[in-house]
Amino acid sequence: MSKVATYLRGHLAGEVDFRTDLRAARARDAGILAIAPEMVVSPRNTSDIRKTARFSWQLSERGHALPLVARGAGYGISGGAVGRGAQISLAAHMNTIFEYDSKQRLARLQPGVTIQALQSALALQGTGVLALDGLDSRGTIGGAIADNAAGYLAGKYGSLAANVSQLEVVLANGDVLQTGKISKRELSRKKGQQDLEGDIYRGVETILEDYADEISTIHERDQTGYNSIVRVRDRDGSIDLTPLFIGNQGTLGIISEMILRVDFRSQHLDTAALVFASADTARDMLDELRRFAPAFVKYFDAALVRRAVQVGYKAPWFQEVGGKAPQAVILVGFDDFNARARAKGKKKLEKLCGGVADVSLVLDDDAHASLSPLLDIARYSTLPDRAGVGMSPLLSDWFVPPERFEDFTKALAALGNKLRVDLPIAVDGLTELVSAYPLAPIAQASDRQKLMRLFDETARLVHQYGGAIVGQHGEGRLLSRFAYECIGARRVDMYRAIRKLFDPLGTLNPGVKQLNDVRQLAGMIDGTLRF
């Protein structure tokens, strides 16, 4: 491998490292898998990425694989940014915001720009990418796009996909693809090209035709695999490949530049907490709360708040309701620009709660500290004080149809009892995405086997109730096996066809968004982790 590193060092402006300590430090993302790369490449520009991809392609043509693993800041949770081969570290140097067009509200930037840097820069203009609010601010924009990530305002303002205007992508062979809507006439010209880009446009049209019946059955809330193929072709026959790269996790190409649409941002956020003595009443109220046009509605099992309180989280409002212990909490936020509109929303809450027994309403303008930290209450379950238990939020962002939600929660509780694992849940009331937060040990081999069983059975349960375990965030290396086993062979074949089209030699992030062996996955779990 030193010969490969030496060759790349002579051709790249960025650094190439294969020191053991650096490779070990890059072996993990924010999840539970650990796979050390063979080298870390820190490109300084798109040309460096192109040269690395072209070199990897040429090696693969000669039978010597050098996989490429794109990585931002490493805050993904599903193993999408870890793997063998050359890790392309985009955060080191490719972190420039090039320009901002205030008239069109467009920002052009590199993928290594952090969420914090972008939001801070846009705040000076009174704007922001609101779908990113609530994500770890240390994460990169490129990583968020590649992982199809979104924060707590996505229910009101849409997912991150709504903000992506265009992408510059380095393809597997080192060519550069500029995404964007192209007309039928331009599509004909693209299909005539005798290069990888031409192959891709010809192949995408073929896949759209060959799998039209399968594509028509994809639920719009299901983000598994490359289900964004449903948004590639418009009714007028035009094509835009941008959706395929949102959530692709570096398996179809490496994003090297982007243009994002931004929104005007309110500087105000009024919050209220509803504490319930009955979880059923709380879940029933979600439908009513959606009608108030809030910025967000978040449901939490009381067990999540109780865990936090036990380790020192201050919640003086979390008290008995009607002499009964709390069973659920709902946090509601209003971010309207107009103060009267925000006040009106809180008045509606007061009226609603006044007609419901066993519910206590707490407003953040009472004698209480801000309620906003409740949005991150699950961190005390995913990062508990006790060593050797807990996990990153891998059982998160499932889509479950609202009409089956009540039955699903009962079935999930029964599954937890069977596996002897507590599965308290949180629900985004606007996106209707569900997350579970177990505390489970992973130090022993038997623990990891039980974890694999938990992933398998929860995936099957979500599918049984008409949902999908990938409603947001990519399935990565760890969860793809369990997601794909529920969707049918024909859809998996379509995913493979899309993957093969963009990555014919299999150099881009192999093992991510693919059917992996469960035993191998269990062996990749870092049993030394102490959350």
TrEMBL record:
Belongs to the FAD-binding oxidoreductase/transferase type 4 family. It comes from the Bacteria. Gene3D superfamilies: 3.30.465.10. Residues 33-265 form the FAD-binding PCMH-type domain. This is D-lactate dehydrogenase (cytochrome). PROSITE patterns: FAD_PCMH. Its cofactor is FAD. Its EC number is 1.1.2.4. Keywords: FAD, Flavoprotein, Oxidoreductase, Transit peptide. Transmembrane segments: none annotated. PANTHER family: D-LACTATE DEHYDROGENASE (PTHR11748), D-LACTATE DEHYDROGENASE, MITOCHONDRIAL-RELATED (PTHR11748:SF111). Pfam families: FAD-oxidase_C (PF02913), FAD_binding_4 (PF01565). SUPFAM superfamilies: FAD-binding/transporter-associated domain-like (SSF56176), FAD-linked oxidases, C-terminal domain (SSF55103). The keyword Oxidoreductase applies. InterPro entries: FAD-bd_oxidored_4_C, FAD-bd_PCMH, FAD-bd_PCMH-like_sf, FAD-bd_PCMH_sub2, FAD-linked_Oxase-like_C, Oxid_FAD_bind_N.
